Fold each of these.
Amino acid sequence: MAWDRNQMAARAAQELEDGMYVNLGIGIPTLVANYVGDKDITLQSENGMLGMGPFPFEGEEDPDLINAGKQTITELNRTAYFDSATSFGMIRGGKIAAAILGAMEVAENGDLANWMIPGKLVKGMGGAMDLVAGVGRVIVVMDHTNKAGESKVLRKCTLPLTGKGVVDRIITNLGVLDVVPGGLRIVECAEGVTEEELRAATEATIVG
Amino acid sequence: MTGSKKVYADADAALEGLLHDGMLIAAGGFGLCGIPELLIDALVKSGVKDLTIASNNCGVDGFGLGKLLDTRQIRKMISSYVGENAEFMRQYLSGELELEFNPQGTLAERMRAGGCGIPGFYTKTGVGTVIAEGKEVKTFDGQDYILERGIVADLSIVKAWKADDTGNLVFRKTARNFNPPAAMCGKVCVAEVEEIVPRGSLDPDMIHLPGIYVHRIVQGQHEKRIEQRTVRKRETA
């Protein structure tokens, strides 16, 4: 037993507080928007928008209105548009309270790798390096292990970094861990997962 | 009516006398949203080559900047995210095309800074990553930052929604994106728009980019292709 994609997204949504401006990455992080409930959350899309709305109804797509994943979206009554330099100004300037992102690897010192695998097709970092360097809190949502069953929660990242010492909290299918001095601290285990199972699946040092 | 001298009949005329092989061009747009598609077509027709293009992306196969790949007119791209087209990857992997990755915010700020007379700036983006290699590191208040350079382009090509004949620009929704910083960093900026309106008909308080940054304007029809069409179902009663 462990959390599925939607349960991970629901758990990540608990990290968000009323009034926050938040940037959600592609994949499971996008699903977090479905679980914010009544909380007053403003979503940022780094191509130049605050107050991102849901996908449009068929026939109402607007080529001038897309998110950072290049998908057609809609605006809300709170929406504001701005240029890319202003957008990354608010990111770099720490105005965005949190970013929820996927990852390939996270290390116990908060290092994050999520943009390239050497020898494989490299498409670029997009805005990921700016986001992890700039926002108030970086929350990673990912599977605890890769397809080969190896831990993605490591002592040291093996892949090229997106950011050094940038991750605050890791939410995986097995549980929640915080980056603290000396390693990772277990915050909670996923439903049906024991602390022993979580430790066994984690290569990183667990403290406390 | 000095401002009306900025209006050109078509994209070919708007680029006349501005192009030379090996030049650096900054282009606005994010994905296929807000790209200067008419000016890109005119660049293809011109045959100008060995271009370095600073643009967040490089279009798709056969559309946007992808057209300039098909004709081998691009020598180098400065981008944050590429590879949405097969021809880009083929040329890159075969060594025909040079690629400089910039983090997206760094690229936007490099353009903005270049246009604002700022030759370099320190940013924490990319510290401790491959992006920092070979760059000066400076510590401010206990935090490390890397030095990034402003970009000054030989030419900027951008797309806006409306212009008046003095070059004041208004953008629409997320099609604004890289267009203002790209426009600012060019020694010369050519803007293509959906509509040129008479001066006085744009609210001066609602101008997104003042005409001082825009030297030539052309009006035309835009395809505005959608890259990822995503929709939701209507709730049926």
Note: The mean pLDDT of chain A is 96.
Amino acid sequence: MYTQALNTSDADDRHVEDAARAAAFQARIDAEERIEPNDWMPAAYRKTLTRQISQHAHSEIVGMLPEGNWITRAPSLRRKAALLAKVQDECGHGLYLYAAAETLGASREELVDLMLSGKAKYSSIFNYPTLTWADIGVIGWLVDGAAIMNQIPLCRCSYGPYARAMIRVGKEESFHQRQGYEIMLTLARGSEEQKAMAQDALNRWWWPVLMMFGPPDQVSQHSDTSTKWKIKRFSNDELRQKFVDATVPQAQYLGLTIPDPGMKQNAEGHWEYSSIDWDEFKQVLAGNGPCNRDRLAARRKAHDEGAWVREAAQAYAEKRKHRQLAQAAE
Amino acid sequence: MATPNTPLWEVFIRSRNGLAHKHVGSLHASDATMALQAARDLYTRRGEGLSIWVVPSSAITASDPADKGMMFEPAESKIYRHPTFYEVPDEVGHM
């Protein structure tokens, strides 16, 4: 999902330190207890979570870029106000998540620097361009819809600060999906051109959205430990299937066609989709998606151009502190 | 060059008149004024509060989870601190 790079092997780190403590830790997890920042935890648990939560945070922050692209060109003041509020929420979500990651001992600045240097990943989905206004509708409806599907089980994640951040994010996120669907509905009921624009956006985003859930279960190497630690409660394929089953009727209501001619409903009522182009997914994760360079360049530019603000605020705080100390000494 | 660290603050919000301030999360800011403004933007976008406190995270002293037993167990055994420990005959009525 927003943390797809976790699906790579990390076997070197999985040394077991203190067997007795690790067993007690696992017993707490099995008893559905929440782990809190000052509790003992295996180094690999801390590392996995730091990576997962910070990647999730980076995704929220980079996720502002494709949508921010349309704020000045929203078709009405109502749409503009809603989009602006949504993008502001994404920033807030990134900050809640950085705060949760920091409880594990990393600093936000360090995590942000890892993203800016290209060492830390963010979700593959944000490396696709938003070419028309309909893309904003599809992002709210499908990208946020997929994110919600992933975030609901994370609200019960074993790590307390992450679970609490997800509850807060989830409450705000449902407006995002509804505003996206409303845009789609308006376009789908509009002129032939508007309907065609909605269909075109769905055609371009459908497969990248399915890739958001990460590689198929048989090749996802990270899932075992994450499942054991109750960081992950459903497999990639389970969540993907839930998402597809929920989305097909919504697309039918819009009168839009999911760009998968081979898709069919099976006897249990599940919608079976055709095979996903995992080579494309690998390419995007490796930095070769349509917008990878643009996204990182935009983040670096914002960070660099904000440096003087951080320095000035820091200098002002220092000056005030010295003044107060001097006054106290008098 | 690595980005220098900005101080961390804990944020507490009073959601309604008559309720206590409750911890809602943390944020980074150079000083208390900016911490208050950032807390307003980050934690009250949907009318979550009437009042905000920000406290430097470094000012908080926390109990050690490893001391949980020693700290809190003594209260567990003192059931006579609860009203249900005492018997009052039904005829006396609600007390």
Note: The radius of gyration of chain A is 22 Å.
Amino acid sequence: MWYGHGMANLRGNRLLALVCGAVLSLAAVTSVLAAPKTGSARLLNVSYDPTREFYHAYNTAFAAHWKQQTGQDLSVDMSHGGSGKQARGVIDGLQADVVTLALAYDIDAIAQHARLLPPDWQQRLPYNSAPYTSTIVFLVRKGNPKGIRDWGDLVKPGVEVITPNPKTSGGARWNYLAAWAWALKRELGNLDRLQDPAQAAAVAAAQDKARAFVAEIFKRVPVLDSGARGATNTFVQRGIGDVLLAWENEAFLAVKELGPDKVDIVVPSLSIVAEPTVAVVDANVDRHGTRQVAQAYLEWLYSPTGQELAARHYYRPVRVDLIDPALLQRFPALELVRIDEVFGGWVQAQKTHFDNGGVFDAIYAR
Amino acid sequence: MGLRPSTAEPRWVRLLLVSVTLLFLGAFLVTPLVAVFVEAFRKGLGAYLASFADPAVLSAIRLTLLAAGIAVPVNLVFGLAAAWAVAKFEFPGKSLLTTLIDLPLAVSPVVSGLIYVLVFGLHGWLGPWLQAHDLQVIFAVPGIVLATVFVTVPFVARELIPLMQEQGTEDEESALTLGASGWQTFRRVTLPNVRWALLYGVILCNARAMGEFGAVSVVSGHIRGKTNTVPLQVEILYNEYNFVAAFAVASLLAMLALVTLAAKTLVEWRVAAAPASIFAAGEKP
């Protein structure tokens, strides 16, 4: 019996070796096929959900620009998904040359967990490596039947709120923080009091109120999608919910794609400046030999063409001096707060609110 | 005296049961299937066909065919070998083997995908070594093929094992007694006995290989035109507000389902008609 057993083991090992060999040769063949030909370059841009249309346009424009500058043909591959999920993919080995994610924290995670780029990556490009910004607005059903005008209306009886999951979606974390900031402002009157040590008691009381308010909103969320685009489709296509908390660009796009006869945009009194950040993934570009083109790809986002394309796709350009003022009129004016002022930056906000065992877990578990 | 009816239930009970079943099937199977085609042709045949001109869609179709083209033969061979081993031989660990064959059905596909990330990911067991040799398994074609092979492991083996067990080893023993070699016995006796079940398993295996979403989604990386299979491309097109194209591509999968169903029915009919054993042909029970 032991003899037969040994034979089985031997066969098992050979089978394992065979399988491993087959997988590796497949990997080798596909790697060779994927290797760039001379005279052409390939980039992989790993991005978040709502940037599809923008980068589709930008890639074409940049490829033409690059061809003109260097004579090299460039093709840019895109991968889109929830920002946190995408960062996780890059950490696990998705070969991104550049990442263009929803928030700095997700790129921080790549720097921290996989050390694929240095911790000070955000200082390498102007404006905190955010070539365009956005904010959070509301999308409501045509004619606004539930009368939703501001954050406070989200907790009116009978209102269902759609937002993606803050655990996986960058936009959802901005949604959550914007709601929290609005509640703080309501309680404190002036957000400057957050920085004043003498006001600590009042601030603590306001934080409690804000927590209760955000908890109340999440009680009204029937579906938590993993990314912003999924949430938009839940709201618009599947017709679930009364109000969608959305990226401004995503809301504009939804109105444009799906028709102004279905949904309206509501701009709240206060929202948060969302800074989607971009970075070259050093370890990957060095291995692929694409550092130069990857760097140029991101820098060109700050050029007049890059900024104009961003504005056309409803991202707020950072270099407003470079583009036609008429293009800026589409962006409504509203009070915008920054995450650094209200939440002490992304690292702090992530730790307090979104990490396992954080505030979001506590309020969503109830 | 007339024959008693085979069921004693009153007519209305039977009617109720039949209509409930039909309503249920209509609501949960036929309606979605019809909806897929209605949506796909919403803007006419031209728009439907134009959906397939997109290079990303063509690449998704190619990748799905490649993944199924590898997964099905691999599992055909494995399924036959495993079923033969389980049904015809006694060996220690046999029940463990049959349990393991069923594992991919018991594990959520997402978990199967994550297992590959854990093994082949940059921080997985083999990740650093693969990286050093410039080999890419997950977020590339090999990972998708691996995930597809994994989730389709049970289909052929599960079809064959019960049949082979039921057929027993008598036919093989007779063949061996008559002087056939092991390979001849397998090719001339065992294989013909199970051919319809084998085909049935292959059909199911193929349907699952082409339709798999969860495991493949985890290891894909969703790179447009490179690592998206047909089901992943459907999701992407839908998320890009490109509904006609999404449903057009989905209609491919729906057609695959219909073809699978037809082939399955045909094979089932042949299985019912075929004798249980080639030696039993012509015998009266």
Note: Chain B touches chain A through 34 residues (CB under 8 Å).
Amino acid sequence: MNMSKQKNPMPTQDPAVRAHNFDEVAKGYDAETAENEADRCLHCKNPACVSGCPVKINIPAFLQKAAAGDFEGAYAVITAESSLPAVCGRVCPQENQCEGQCVRGKNGDPVGIGRVERFVADWHNEHAAAPAEKPVSNGHRVAVIGSGPSGLTCAGDLAKKGYDVTIFEALHTPGGVLVYGIPEFRLPKAIVSREIEGLSALGVRVCTDVVIGRTLSVDDLFDEGYEAVFIGSGAGLPRFMNIPGENLKGVYSANEYLTRVNLMKAYRADSDTPVMKGGRVAVVGGGNVAMDAARTALRLGADKVYIVYRRSMEELPARREEVEHAMEEGIEFLLLNNPVEILGYHNPNDRRDPKNGFVTGMRVIRMELGEPDERGRRRPVEIPGSEYELALDTVVMAIGTSPNPLIKSTTPGLDVNRHGGIVVEEETGKTSLDGVYAGGDAVTGAATVILAMGAGKTAAAAIDKALGAR
Amino acid sequence: MFEIVRRAELNPTVTLLEVAAPLVAKKARPGQFIILRVDAAGERIPLTIADSDPEKGTVTVIFQIVGATTEKLNHVPAGGCLADFVGPLGRATEIGGVKKVAVVGGGVGCAIAYPVAKAFFEAGAEVHAVVGFRSKDLIILENEFRAHAHKFVLMTDDGSAGEKGLVTDALRRLIEAGERYDRVVTIGPLIMMKFVSAVTKEYGIPTVASMNPVMIDGTGMCGGCRLTVGGETKFACVDGPEFDAHLIDFDEAMERGAMYRDFERAAHEATCNLYRMGESKQ
């Protein structure tokens, strides 16, 4: 038993170096460190970490195998519950989940569960002998809409049971938010494509360039002979603040900014997709997406990058590690600050001045925390007369998304709630339509990879129960 | 991969491609668009659907060579393939309930104006087509328009064909002569649509403009195609591409359209140089 109070530190690229490249920031443990860290687990009788995990991985069991150097055994324990361990080890907010519940955390650091999980998954990917074999088909066909975390999980679970699964993806590359949203330096795309290759080995077909709600409707899928449909279409339309100046040139939604860079590879010289690079950049928002956008701006060559967030550090929703990494890289946090207007260039004497309509800055007002709202979070209140101007070239709005109406508007009888999220039965993922299931951000609004995976899993089990009986 | 089954150069800068895309062809309606990528490093560009044949499983697009991507696209031969071709996206033109319509097209926008005119014509509306080009050698689809319009007015900037002048002059003259349109549909350069909209506003004629802003995914996810319509932000890809022209902030749309002008100019030049080098080696 390793009784050290500290987690084994994660080797990372030097902040001064990594702020200028898109290579992965965290380099991962080596085998010895992983064994050593796994050996910090106390093997509690009633492991709180498992209850903190949205997909209920048997954490003490996989740590025990990892501590003994049986990494393939550890991998088998994890993948009994999770289909994307290399992804989750990197992007899960462990501090609010498994590690947040770990008993070791009461007096020192919790066990570095996420770091060991990542090592185990990477070890498997490097050493695994043969890809999984295609299970014997049970003859049932299932359609999965969207190839993000929930869709991949649902497809994987069903394929393992012998279902004939087809994933329909609107973009040209599968992976959803793992490909267009989360940057290369946090989640290398090679890892995502490896996960998708794993699904292909199980017999899952991926049809890219198909927009359900346009190219095909949900009804078309049933007409084509699919017996069940899982909707994992993701978060949808980016929100804006509805303040003046948001349509100026140089204002992006985080979705657009990150898609240009991650999916379209605008950071590479050989990409045909442009993105504004350099200068002074403000990212509005405090979630993981905001951190990703800010750190991307830095890597695209920005001179100065701000995070503008209307509450304080305590309420900032991003994963702790991302906030720490962002600070180390030199991103400045303007907390308790809120934009009021985005300012642009206008030459009154020359309507054809090429600089017209580009962002020059942002008017920002300082905030203080007032009374708690209905959810117990202290409400940010403007401090009168505290407005000031920030000189800027680019503004990225990372303040969330609202559900995409495409599927809802072309699927009669599919119920959505007042926010536009698809209504499902929590235990099964069943929607208001027979044979149609849903999960992930299309149901909950913007949430985490692991929650979406959990929803994909739940729906896969329910689909298996419904179709397996036939 | 999506095969180009037919390729035709309509004029020195405008090319027609008929692409094998059976699923898209099955659903495509006039007014909708597709997004394509030429190759794996290519950008995603939206092109409005010019025609579709559900039985053959093909979709026709017509494009003008304006930048690096359209230059590359113009170099794909018949029988060659496009990496991606997705759609149909956006909402279709509302055809029903219109008795008499003026379809006003400009330049390569006529490629989109034509299927709209045809749809109205086939639905039994009286169709007046007013189309404008810079000069005679840039005219496209003249015979097609003539076959699907009760009245056809051709304008050129230099008077080398049809009448010399702008489409707005012709439209105003028709209205002044007593033509009573219950709708005007305009498709072409933003500046043209802005002035068509100004003319019809004077006469209180409901007018629809087809917008073609910068876009990436085309499904509402990125918001890059946003524009201001009636003081509200709209996404052209899911709320459009057609909007009430009298409510569109055309000046803002023109500014946003020029966001990457420098990048595009440099990329186009670099692409042309590549092709030139390729040719000189042969």
Note: Chain A is about 35% helix and 15% strand.
